[in-house]
Design goal:
four-stranded antiparallel sheet; 365 residues; globular; disordered C terminus
Length: 365
C-alpha cells in the first residue's frame, strides 16, 4: 500500500485480493485519537471492546465441525444464528468465504477462532497512532504481515504466513448479516470490507516494510464515532487457552461496568451457549463441565474471585439449566474502574459534539 505523491496527506492507494487498484481518501477524525488513548497510558496492555459488534456470534468454534458440514468437501451452507444483546434479540446470517487456490481448487470457510485472533490483533495494532487510520470515512489499520505475525507470536498464537494471508482473505470474503428480531436490518458486511494486501513477491523483498490495509466492519466505525467502545485488558484476553474464556472475558469487560463485591454477576448456561455459540454437548453434565473449566480459567487470571452454581432440574432430575453467580476479583474490579474513568474522560472530550448517556450497570443476563 502506498500514498499518492500528488496529495500525500489525503490519498492512499493499493491493490485488493483480485489485483485491482483501489484509491481511498484519508482523514484524521478526533474520535480515532480518543480510541487510541487509554487509562492509565499503558498501550501494551489495553485494547477496546465494541458495542454490539463484539456480541455478534460470527465465529465458528471448531474446524472439524466445519469440515463435517462441507458438501463434496468444498461448499458450506449459510449459517443462521440468534443472540441477545442488552435485552434485544438479533438474527445473524453468515455466508462462507470461498477461497480459490493456485491449482484452481476451491474450498469454503466460515470465520473461525483463527480469524477471531487475527482480527483482535489488528484492532490492537490500530490502537497505535501510526497504524490506526480512517480512509473514506471508515476506520481501519495499516500494517505489515511481519508486524501482524509478530503480534500474534507475542501473544502465544503463532500462525504461519500462508495461513495468515488465508485468514485475512476469509475475513474479507465471508459476509455477515445482522437483523433485529422484527427483520429490521442492522448491518450487512464482511469482517474486513476492504483488504489491500501485498503480493508474495513484495513481501519476500521487504517483509518488514511492505504494508497492507484492512477496513474494519462498519459497526466498529460507528462505535468509534459514537464513543460506545470500552477499554479492556487485551493481554489477559489473548492469553486464554479456551475460546469460551475469551468470550466470557470480553462480555464481562463490556457489560459488567459496575463490578464490585456487592454486585455479583449472574448468567445462565443457556445464555452462555446461545450467545457464545460454543457447540452444546449432548449431555447437560458435559456442558456444565465446559463452563466450569472456563470459569476456573477466569479465576486463574484474577478476573473472578469465586463462582457458584444453582442447578435447575427437570423430570427425572435431568439438568435443564444452570444459574451461575460470579464474584469478581479485585483486580478485575480495578480494571473496570479504570475503564469507567476513561469512558467519562471520552465523554468530556467531545461534550460539545455528543450527548452521551451515563454508563448503565448490567449485572444480570
Amino acid at each position: 500500500m502506498t500514498e499518492n505523491n500528488i496529495s500525500k496527506a489525503t490519498r492512499v492507494k493499493g491493490k485488493n485480493v483480485h489485483g485491482q487498484v483501489v484509491v481511498l481518501t484519508r482523514s484524521k477524525p478526533e474520535q480515532l485519537g480518543l480510541f487510541q488513548t487509554f487509562v492509565p497510558e499503558d498501550e501494551e496492555k489495553y485494547s477496546n471492546t465494541i458495542e454490539l459488534y463484539d456480541a455478534v456470534p460470527k465465529y465458528f468454534s471448531h474446524t472439524r465441525g466445519m469440515a463435517a458440514l462441507r458438501e463434496s468437501g468444498k461448499y458450506l451452507p449459510i449459517l443462521d444464528r440468534e443472540f441477545e444483546h442488552r435485552g434485544e434479540v438479533y438474527k445473524v446470517q453468515i455466508h462462507p468465504a470461498r477461497i480459490r487456490y493456485k491449482d484452481k481448487q476451491e474450498k469454503e470457510f466460515y470465520p473461525s477462532q483463527r480469524e477471531e485472533l487475527v482480527e483482535e490483533a489488528l484492532r490492537k495494532i490500530a490502537c497505535d497512532h501510526l497504524n490506526g487510520i480512517y480512509l473514506d470515512d471508515q476506520a481501519g489499520v495499516q500494517f505489515t504481515l511481519y508486524e501482524l505475525r509478530q503480534e500474534l507470536v507475542a501473544r502465544g498464537h503463532a500462525i504461519n504466513m500462508p495461513d495468515l494471508v488465508e485468514s485475512l482473505k476469509i475475513c474479507n470474503l465471508a459476509n455477515i448479516s445482522v437483523q433485529k428480531a422484527d427483520g429490521t436490518g442492522v448491518m450487512q458486511a464482511s469482517i474486513f470490507p476492504i483488504l489491500l494486501i501485498v503480493s508474495r513477491e513484495e513481501w519476500l523483498k521487504q517483509p518488514k516494510q511492505a504494508r497492507c490495509y484492512v477496513q474494519f466492519n462498519p459497526l466498529i466505525t460507528a462505535s468509534i464515532n459514537r464513543l460506545t467502545y470500552r477499554q479492556f485488558d487485551y493481554q489477559t484476553y489473548m492469553s486464554y487457552k479456551h475460546r469460551l474464556s475469551r468470550w466470557f472475558h470480553k462480555r464481562l469487560s463490556h457489560n459488567y461496568t459496575q463490578s464490585g463485591l456487592l454486585h455479583p454477576y449472574t448468567i445462565r448456561m443457556c445464555t452462555i451457549l446461545r450467545d457464545s455459540r460454543v457447540p452444546p454437548k449432548e449431555r447437560g453434565n458435559d456442558n456444565a463441565r465446559e463452563v466450569e473449566k472456563t470459569l476456573q480459567e477466569l479465576q486463574s487470571k484474577r478476573v473472578l474471585m469465586t463462582f457458584n452454581q444453582e442447578i435447575l432440574r427437570g423430570p427425572r432430575h435431568k439438568i435443564m439449566d444452570i444459574k451461575y453467580t460470579l464474584q469478581p476479583d479485585l483486580d478485575f474490579v480495578n480494571e473496570a474502574k479504570k475503564a469507567n474513568t476513561r469512558a467519562m474522560r471520552l465523554s468530556k472530550a467531545l461534550s460539545g459534539q455528543y450527548v452521551l448517556g451515563s454508563p448503565q450497570a448490567n449485572f444480570k443476563d
